[in-house]
Structures are given as C-alpha cells and as structure tokens.
Amino acid sequence: MDGLLCLTEFEQHQLLQKWTNTQTDYPRTSTIHDLFQRQAAKSPDAIAIAYQNQQLTYQELEQQSNQLAQYLQSLGVTTETLVSFYLERSPELIITILAILKAGGAYLPLDTSTPPQRLNTILEDAQAPILITQKNKLTSLPKLPDSLHLLCLDDYFNSTTSSPPIPPAHTVNSNNLAYVMYTSGSTGKPKGVCVPHRGVVRLVKNTNYAHFGADEVVLQLASIAFDAATFEIWGALLNGGKLVLMPAKIPSLQDIGTAIKHHKITTLWLTAGLFHLMVEEQIEALKPLQQLLAGGDVLSIPHVKKVLTELPDCQLINGYGPTENTTFTCCHQITLEDTTKSSIPIGRPIANTQVYILNPDLQPVPIGHPGELYIGGDGLARGYLNQPDLTQKRFIANPFSHDPNARLYKTGDKVRWRDDGVIEFLGRFDFQVKIRGFRVELAEIEAVLQNYPNVRNVVVLAREDTPGDKRLVAYLVPEDNHLELNPEPIKSFLLKKLPSYMIPSAFIVLDQFPLNINGKVDRRALPAPNQNLGLNRQLVKPCNPTEHRMAAIWQEILGVEVGVNQTFTDLGGNSLQATRILSRVRDAFGVDIPVSVMLQNRESSAATIASLAEYVTHRPLQDNVSEINPIKAIPHGNDLPLTVYQERIWLLAQRAKQHPIYNLPMVFRLQGTLNITLLEKAINQVIKRHESLRTIFSVVNGLPRQHILPELTIKISVVDVNTNQLSQAEEEQHIQTLINQEASHCFDLQADPLIRVKLFQLRTDDFILMMTCHHIISDGWSLSVLLNEISLFYTNLIQERQLNLPELTVNYGDFTLWHQQHQEDRETSLLNYWTNQLTGALPLLNLPTDHPRPAIQTYKGTIQYFHINQDVRTQIEAFSQGQGATLFMVLVAAFQILLHCYSHEDDIVIGSPIASRNHSSLENLIGCFANIIPLRTHTHNNPSFLEFLAQVKKVSLEGYTYLDFPAEKVLSNFKYKRNLSYYPWFQVVFILLNVPQHNFELPGLKITEKKFNKGAAICDLVFLVEPKTQGLQCSIEYNTALYNDETITRLIGHFQQLLQDILTHPEQQIKQLPLLTEAEASQLLPSPSADEALSVPNTAGSKHQFVEPRNELERQLQNIWETVFHLKPIGIRDNFFELGGHSLLGLRLFSKIQQQTGQDLPVTTVFEAPTIEELAKILQTKQEIVPESSVVTINPNGNKPPLFFVNSINYAWKLSSYFPKDQPVYCVNIFEVIDYLTQNFSQFTLNDIAQKFIEDMRQIQPQGPYSLVAYCNDSYLAFEIAQQLYDQCDQVNFLGLIDAIWGIEQVGFNFHYQNLRELGLSYLFQKIRYQRKLFCLIERIRLNLKKALSKLYSRLDTPIPRRLKANEVLEQFRQATNNYIPQAYPGKINLFISSELRNLSHEMFSNLARAGLDVQEIPGYHNSFLQSPQIERLAEKLQTYLT
C-alpha cells in the first residue's frame, strides 16, 4: 500500500471507497434455480419463453425442467457435476440449462457452429461425463470417447416414462459452480471460465445499470456459448419477464428487425459490430426498444449519436465486462454530451462490483492516468477449469480487502478514471504488438483513424502473412460508399499524429466488416493486403525486374509497401535503414553506393526506388564484384589483432582502470514462470554461435590480441534476494542498488568472459535479469541481436523444438582481417578528409562547469533519465521528413545549438557513434562495429535553425562516407600538446540508438526493462536518445567531477524547451533563442580555454633543445623511440606527444621496452612519464605504477577471517596487540589513498570512500563474511562499508562501533550534568585534562595555516606536498561525514560504549539495524577508550564475536 502515498487523501477516498462502494441488498445466498422456482410460483401463468409459434409459461418451464433434472440425477449428476450440451437455440435448450442446475450440476454450453477440432479440444479439457444433444446434431460432433454418456433429448422426450414434476433435492448453494464457458486463450487453446451461482444472481437482481421486471421482453440473440446469453436468459427469467428466442439460424439484420417488431422487444443486447450494422440498416426496427445495451468493442460515436437522436425513448447503455466477471463489470448510460468526447466511456462499476485501476506494481494510478483494470466483487469467476497456474496469474489476491480470500481479476484492459468517476477504455495491453522492435498500441492507431473524414469504422491489425514479415494493415469502412477513401491523404494525416513505425503499410477499404458468431468483428476473416485495392491502387508499381528487386529490398527493411516514386526520407527512413538497404543493393547488383547519396535530397540518384534502379541500371557495372571488396569467411585461427574500434576501447579501458566506462548492461524484470536451466542453455547456444562472445584480450609482447576461445560455457549467477521485511519503496530502492552494483562491476579483459549474466530472485515468480557485455565485443546493434537470439533459443527449448537459425556467413575474425586491409587501402583519403575537417578546431569545448577540471581525467559519473513524449516525437519526425532530414539530424542539431548557448562557442565539435555494418553479412553478427566520429558545425553567421539543420545534414552525410575515423593517426598530424584532463576532439557525445529492435520475449513471462546507473562516465557528457513506443527515452551520462546533478537537470529542461521553440519557429535565428538567464549562467564556472586551436605543424623551421642520452639505459630507450617513430635524433627530453605520439604508438613503444628490458609497464605510463628521461628513472628504480591501497597490514598471520579496523594505524596496532597472534588484523585508512582521492574527486562522499575501501579489502579477503570495527566518527564510514557489502550480496558477520556518537546535539548541559552526578569529580578532571575546546581551536589554526600553504604552492605552480594534501582530504572527509545520511541496515549493530556515553539515546541505531542492536558498556571515558585498561576489556569482548 506504499504506492498510495503518491495519491492525495481525497484521491484515496475516491478511488478506494467512494467509487468502489457499490454494495446493494440482493439475494446473494440464493441459487439461480431457487430464484426461478420462486418466480414460477409468483407468476405461474406468465409467458416465460416464446419461440416462433411456441410458448412456455413459467409453470410449464418449471415442471419440465424438474422432470429432466430428476432424470439427470439418476444418471449420476450431483453437486457441481459438469454437464455439456450441444443444442440449437430452442425451448428445449432453456429446459436443459434449468434441469442441469436443479440436479445440482453446472452446465457447459457448446455452440453448434464451433469447428469439430475446437469442440474436441473443449471436451477433452472439460472432461464432462455427460453430453446432451439431439439426433440431428450427432454427425456434427467429433469422435467422442466411450466414457462420455450421450443423452439425446429426442429419446428423452419420446420416452413413456417420466418423473414427477417436482423439484429434485440438492445441496447446492450460491458458492457452487453454475456454468463453465470457454473463451479464446492467448496460446490458441480455449480456456474454461468457471462461474458460480452468485455471479449470475448479482448480475440480474437488484442491480443498477438496467431495468429488469415482469414488463420486460428480452430477445435471446447471443450464442449460448457467449456470456451475453447469461444476461439475456436470466435477466428475463429471474425477474418474471418474457424471453424471446431467436430462431436457430444465423439471423439477417432484417430478421432481427422483424423479431423486435413482432414480439415488441423492450430490452436488447448487441455486440458493437452488430450494433453499428443495425443502426445503419435497421434503425427504424429499433424504435420499440426501451433499453439497448451494446458493447464488447469500441462504440462508434456517429452511430451512438444517431441512436440518441432518432430513438429518444430508448436508453442506450455501453456495457463492458469480461467473461471472468459474469458478463458485465461496468455500464454507462450514454448521453449526447458523451458524443462530444473522443470516445464513449465504459462507465462505472455495476452493483456489487469493485474496480481498481492499477500500475504494474498493483498501486492505484491517479485520476486521469492510464493503468490496467482489475475487477473484484461478487461477479468474479472462480478461475479457469483445470488451469491452476493461469488462475493464480490472472486471479490475484486483493490488496485492498481485509478478506484473505478476496481476489481481483487482471483484465489486461488499459483504462483511466475521469474526474467524475467514470472510466474510459483506452485499449488492450495484449493488443500491443511489436513492429520493427517498437511496441504499438493498435487501438491508438484506430482512434486516430476514426477521426479522419468519411471513416465510419476502422480496425488495425498486425499481419504476418509472410513469416517474419510483420506489418500493420488498416481496414476502413467509409460513411458513404460512394466517396472514395484515398490512402495517400490518410497517410499524410497519420504522419502528423503518429510516428512512422505506427503508419499502416496498407489501407483496405471494405463495405462492411465480417462478424463472428458473437457479433464481434471477425478479425481473422479480414482480407490480406494483396486482396484489395487499398494502398496498392495509389502506388506506382515496379515496372521492370530491377525495380521489382529493389522494391523487395526496401519493403524488407522499411516494413511497409512502397511505390517506386516515394522518397526514402518521406517514408521515415533513417541512416541505419539506408545502410541496410544499400548493403543489399551491393550484394544484388555489385554496385557500392554511399549512404549519403540516399539521404541527400529528394532529387538524389538514390532517393526513390525508381531513381535508384535507374542509377544501378545505367551506371557501368563493375566487372568483378571483388572490386567492392566483399567480406569473406577465411581461416583465421584463434589469435588476431584488434580492429581499430577495439584498439580505441582497449586503450581507454586501460586509462579508466577500475571505472566501468565500457560496460553495456541490459536489465529486465521477469514476472512469471522462468526455467533458469533452459535460459542458461539458450544463452550458451548464442555464445557458441558468435566468436566475439568467446573472445578475451591477451597481451602478447606488450600488444593486445583477440584470443577466441574454442569453447565457453557461462553459468547464470543466481542470487536470492530477501525483501520480505521491506516496504514496496524500500524493495525498489534495494533492487536498484543491486542493479547499479552489478552494472558497475568491471571486467578483466584478459581473463573474464566478457559477457556475464546475473539473476536476482525476489520471489518464485519474480526476477531481475542482468546481462552485461563489454563494449569491446559488442555494441548497441549487437545487444539487439543477442536478445533476439536468446528469445528464439529459449522459446524453442521450452517448446522442445529444434531451432535452426541460418548459419553466419562470416564471423568477427573475418571482419577483423578484412577491415584491417580495408583501412590500409583507404588510409590516405581518411587522413586527408579528417585532417582537413578538424584543422582549426579547438581540442576542448569550453562548456562551463560546476567544478574545476581535474588535472587528470576522471571517469566517475552518474546518469539522469528523462522522456520526450509521443506528441513531441511525432512533431519532430514530421518536421524532419518535411526537411528531407532524419530524426537524428534534427535532434543533434538541437543539441549542438544547446551547447552553443551554454558555451558561447561558434565552433562546436561533438562525437557521435556510427555502426560500420554496411555489408548485409554483418547484420546478424555480434561484435564491436561502432566508431565515434567528430561532427563539427559552425554558428558564426547566426543562421536560422533551418539553415543550421542543412549544415548538420551535410556534415553528417560526409561523416557516413568517411566513417572509419582513425583518431590517433589524425591526432599525430597536428601540433598539439596532449592534455591528460580531457579526451581530444570531443568531450561531448550524442547517441541516437536507432538500431534494429528485436523482441525480447520469453514464454510465460512479463518482461519490463529496468534502468541502471553504472557510476561511470566515458567523457564529460553523453546524451543518449532511444526511440520507444511512447516517445523518446533519453538520458545524460555525466562526469560528477565536473557537474552537479541540478546543473544537468537544468540542461535537460533547456533542451526540451529548445525543441519546442525550434518546432514552433524553425526560421528563427539561433542566437535569438535565450535559454540561460544571467542568474543561471553565473552559477556555472567558465571552462578554461584550450591551449590553442588544432593546426597542422610546419616542421621546416621548427627547433627544440636537444639533450643527448647520459647513460646506457637512456641510449637503449633512445634507439627504441627512434625505431618506433622512424625519426632521428630524439632527445631524452623530447615529449612523446609533441613528437606526434599517440596511444597506438605507445602500445608499440612499450612492447619494445618490455622485449629489451624485461620491464612490463602499462601503456598509461606514457601519460605520467612522456620523455625518455622520465621513463628511464622509472625503469632504473624498478618503480611500478600501481594503484594506492587503503589497507595497511597490521597482523597478516593466522587462518581466521580478518578483522578490518576503520580508524588510525596507531590505534589498530594497539588493539591488535591484545588479540591472539593468529587473529589477522588490517587497518583501512583514508590517508593511504590521498592521491587516489584528490585525483578522482573534486568533492568525494562517504559512498565514494567506501567503494574504494571495499575494492581494497577484497584484495585481502575476496568474499565474506566480513568483520568490521570502527571508532568514534569513523563509525559512519564503517556503517556505509557494511551497507554496500550487503547490497553486493556479501555477508557481514560483525559490525562493531566503538563510542559512536550519532546525534551530537545530545551532548549539552544536561549530558555533562548527569555525568558529573553519576561519575563524580573524575569526570570533571577528565574533561579538563583533554581541554577539547582549546584543542579544537589549536587544530583549527593549524588547518588554516596548512590551507594557506596549499594555496601558495598552487600559485607557484609547484606540486603540493603530501602532508598538505592530507589536510585537504581530512577536511573533505569531515564534510562528507556531516553530509552522510544513513539508510536502514539489514544486519546487526554491536555498539561498545564508554561509561561517559551511556546516557545517550541509541534510538537511531535501533531504527537502522533491522537485525537488532546489541549495546555493551565498558567502564571509562571516551578519550581514553583505546588506552589501558579500557582497551584490554574492549579486545576481550571483540574476541567473543571473532571466534
């Protein structure tokens, strides 16, 4: 119920009390047949049934049903015996139903039009022992089992023996089963809904949605196997009304009209489809009606309006309800005002029915918000016959009821509350389909189409007439058949309101929709697109073999039927789809066409199928396809070089060290039945299929190499997560912590499998699945392939079928060798283009920051998510298509303008990744194909957005042509001093993740994607946009050493505002877009300008001071440098980067050093020692560059689990001396990691320190259970360490806090007075001895002096001594402790307190420690706690916990 906290008290009252309080007094303990018997006694001579020329009175119906009931009892029918019948609509059918109930049984109606195979399925599932039918129906039945007793009514009624017409004895009550009705199931197998007597009685007795009485004449029109028949039959017969049976044949509209007039029908139920037809064709025949109920589907507003206008004496009611809640759940008495809205509401819950609109966490959604409808109350079915798992899944415990047996039915219907307590129907959750990876709500498309002029009715389907080719098809019925519906204007209309992937590929115009036996639209009978003239008659068809082949390629990729003159951008195409189309064109025609040609403009040679076919046909074909350099499978062994993409990732991963900048996590919540063994098997089958997933990266002679493992089998790490004691909010927070911890866990490129899978099991049917890959073996496209193939393998394993995926024609190793050659062939053109493109660019974008940029780039980061809604996305896509641009181009243009507004720079360079998969053989391959290219734009002349967009389009298209950006080699062309505080070229990256989206669907599971935060940032800002069904899911990953959270939040708001301004006034000049107020701008620090613009050096006249080597090692290094650089002479003080060095050259350099000196230094050493002189010093002293560790060894001896002491080394030594010699003790201390803290954080938190301490502790003890003890204020840090260990699913055996004062405000006059009374003068002497205030004053003076010294060193540009750095770290640590807010801790806290602190409240500890608090007092004072004799007593007590 925690979710209710987000609702106001008024909303809670409305949603949970006022609008669900529907109780009325009705005969809830009576059975159906008891109520009928009473009605027969009340009005024996009244007509109960009318059928053609036959009539039966209530008394006749009572007597005949009693006789048959006794006969059925003689056949063994008793309480809840299921009796099936296969009968035409007739008086005998009603007699049979009543007889089955009177005998104590439950009836199972079978429709006589049901196909034999489905009948057989139902009979096998139901296992009803008796089947009642007629002789003329025997030939229509399937082969029946011998165990089934067949009763023909012909024989029974012709029999000379009959029972007395008195009610048989029975023991049935209102909780017993009344009937089982089969409905279609999502798996294709029908499911039997079990309805008790009470559900039917609540439907028709003392209810509030319609009038029932002896004056009503009800037409029984619905199929007996459709639950509308329940309303028709019992609404009449349990209230003294007349039930008119429609003849058995399928009636025409005229037949229905005739029956209404002839029998003076007053109450009629029609399905939505039949309602629309009757209103169109037979509205005059409806005039005798007093109440007309319609539903089962969305009602057309024009038809509703027509009824309200022309039938003023008839109450029109929209009836809604699933079979699982006995026919009706909600009803709405429609008024003319309703026709002014977008849809007809389904109304309010009927009497004795409760409804709740909930989110996926079963929490009520606020008024106006969409959610899923859940139903409770007396109409609820028991569940599904013989399907306990499905029953448990769909009929859940009612969290809003005090009755432990109360349940709710999960409808799958999407609805929302209106302010007046009326419910609007929005569609089906299971009418969501996936098209091109996007979840599409078919009802949403239908609703938009319904508003198009001259459209009367519309149905949209996702058809898959060709396996694997799923597409949207719209079926339209016009208001006036004489008016033509032209698909092209309809499509233009839709493009203004819906994203491109929601536009149907075909529009089919029909005179009317086919209906099924229940009167609903028969979606299966709707024709396939090729059977109509819909869109096809408007498109220009291919007219030659080349156009036909080209059209097939376009349709395969775009998922829509295309005319040869439609432009690629008008169809919503993007660069990714263009790449895929042109790779197939290359395969089919042997012609290599740049992507840019396809995207340039509507007049380009590849903008349409016709122009592309013309281009291909008349351009001289290349004599040999090999000239376009296809990728081929060649023997390549298991050890290969890295691709240029992998080299960059490998190098940056070395620099980032323990920061997971290249982790690619995927997180899903799985709810339902999961077979973990088969999921693991499915994942390993995908690993077996793809080389990249079996690749690790060994270092050979100093150079990284791909090493492909012949076999790799991974295990799913399953972690049981117990959240029973947590509230919903606490559980979500705990889950998110687990997700973030796993996402931030780094890979070891040389040893680890670079894919890992973890499963957090929350409950038996609730899991968090995390799959994480390293970017060096995958990319965004690869993750989509991975999920799709896991889905396919798992589905087939579950269904015990063999999956035969097409063999991969090439593997990543083949691509590696091909790409290496391809790069060499194009190296000159690539270098020339990118050198020219970047000449004069600033290496650093001068964005203002919240904190000064650290001297060495840090990778600590976080992420913020935000959403751009569907309406805005639709506007952006329509705008982009109108400009002949792509979604990416518009978004990246807006983002670059935002950067201009923040930085005031007119020359902006950002990075953007592009997938180098321009060969069809690479589309289904997992591997690293993404390369980040620079996009440089200018705003010098204050262009309008339209002009700037044209520039972005040009730059982007050129970039696609030169997508293999050789960053390091280009950098060596420039005169540039390498700065270790940022990455050159760009520090901001924009990503549109428009990769092919595949389904991740596992049978029996509801899958929800979860967000993650890996706590790292590869550069200053990474802006990611991912198209989703409901809009654009966006995130910004940012470096927390530079930016505060609120700054990024503000930037997000500015971006969203900028998009709106651009869409409203695209002609406006960009410098007239004020985003930052003066106050906002003043909050940010100006970024220091870059040293100089990048320029190509003129080496002809350059001179530098040359220093000869002075010893043998320097001469050896000089030879290595000259060999690697191909340059002589090189002096010992010449800078590696000023010589044109880059990371790739660094790899070769350190490989040679390792070969000749035996010293294996990391390549990152070159950033810290970039000259021969500095390198020689490192090698001479054999100094290794290793990370600092916070752990200091106190006593390493013994096999017991170690104790980690969080405080000073001195105290740790003292405490250890009182322990046994075999008790290992280690001290963790911030002063051991001063450089780590000052280099990685401008302002660290306790969370940051704890992460580092845990990382170092694991070097001593890789896994729990851990023992921790801390003194005084360090207790906060120890508490956070224990908290994080628990979050990482490690056990903490012991957490001891020594004299921890949490709540210093308690230490006041009363505290000292109480101690003085209890401890006497010794307490006073103790306070005087330590003179704490004087000590603090002296300490403060010392700190201020040290601060002044630090500033002096900074001004003199002199390295700050370590002792002064320690002062800064201590100051920050105190601030971090003051800012720390402890959260609930799952374990136990052991508190050791001195006598001095015994009067302090320990309530805070008690509230935090979920496993309890143990407090032990040790005589003495706080300041002497770690001195003798107190320390001896403390050690004794600690040992009792450590043994």
TrEMBL record:
<dbReference type="GO" id="GO:0044550">
    <property type="term" value="P:secondary metabolite biosynthetic process"/>
</dbReference>
<dbReference type="InterPro" id="IPR036736">
    <property type="entry name" value="ACP-like_sf"/>
</dbReference>
<dbReference type="InterPro" id="IPR029058">
    <property type="entry name" value="AB_hydrolase_fold"/>
</dbReference>
<dbReference type="GO" id="GO:0008610">
    <property type="term" value="P:lipid biosynthetic process"/>
</dbReference>
<dbReference type="InterPro" id="IPR006162">
    <property type="entry name" value="Ppantetheine_attach_site"/>
</dbReference>
<protein>
    <submittedName>
        <fullName>Amino acid adenylation domain protein</fullName>
    </submittedName>
</protein>
<dbReference type="Pfam" id="PF00550">
    <property type="entry name" value="PP-binding"/>
</dbReference>
<dbReference type="InterPro" id="IPR025110">
    <property type="entry name" value="AMP-bd_C"/>
</dbReference>
<dbReference type="InterPro" id="IPR001242">
    <property type="entry name" value="Condensation_dom"/>
</dbReference>
<keyword id="KW-0597">Phosphoprotein</keyword>
<dbReference type="GO" id="GO:0031177">
    <property type="term" value="F:phosphopantetheine binding"/>
</dbReference>
<dbReference type="Pfam" id="PF00501">
    <property type="entry name" value="AMP-binding"/>
</dbReference>
<dbReference type="Pfam" id="PF00668">
    <property type="entry name" value="Condensation"/>
</dbReference>
<feature type="domain" description="Carrier">
    <location>
        <begin position="1108"/>
        <end position="1183"/>
    </location>
</feature>
<dbReference type="GO" id="GO:0005829">
    <property type="term" value="C:cytosol"/>
</dbReference>
<feature type="domain" description="Carrier">
    <location>
        <begin position="541"/>
        <end position="620"/>
    </location>
</feature>
<dbReference type="GO" id="GO:0003824">
    <property type="term" value="F:catalytic activity"/>
</dbReference>
<dbReference type="InterPro" id="IPR045851">
    <property type="entry name" value="AMP-bd_C_sf"/>
</dbReference>
<dbReference type="InterPro" id="IPR010071">
    <property type="entry name" value="AA_adenyl_dom"/>
</dbReference>
<dbReference type="InterPro" id="IPR009081">
    <property type="entry name" value="PP-bd_ACP"/>
</dbReference>
<dbReference type="GO" id="GO:0043041">
    <property type="term" value="P:amino acid activation for nonribosomal peptide biosynthetic process"/>
</dbReference>
<dbReference type="InterPro" id="IPR020845">
    <property type="entry name" value="AMP-binding_CS"/>
</dbReference>
<dbReference type="InterPro" id="IPR001031">
    <property type="entry name" value="Thioesterase"/>
</dbReference>
<dbReference type="InterPro" id="IPR000873">
    <property type="entry name" value="AMP-dep_synth/lig_dom"/>
</dbReference>
<dbReference type="Pfam" id="PF13193">
    <property type="entry name" value="AMP-binding_C"/>
</dbReference>
<dbReference type="InterPro" id="IPR023213">
    <property type="entry name" value="CAT-like_dom_sf"/>
</dbReference>
<keyword id="KW-0596">Phosphopantetheine</keyword>
<dbReference type="Pfam" id="PF00975">
    <property type="entry name" value="Thioesterase"/>
</dbReference>
<comment type="similarity">
    <text>Belongs to the ATP-dependent AMP-binding enzyme family.</text>
</comment>
<dbReference type="InterPro" id="IPR020806">
    <property type="entry name" value="PKS_PP-bd"/>
</dbReference>
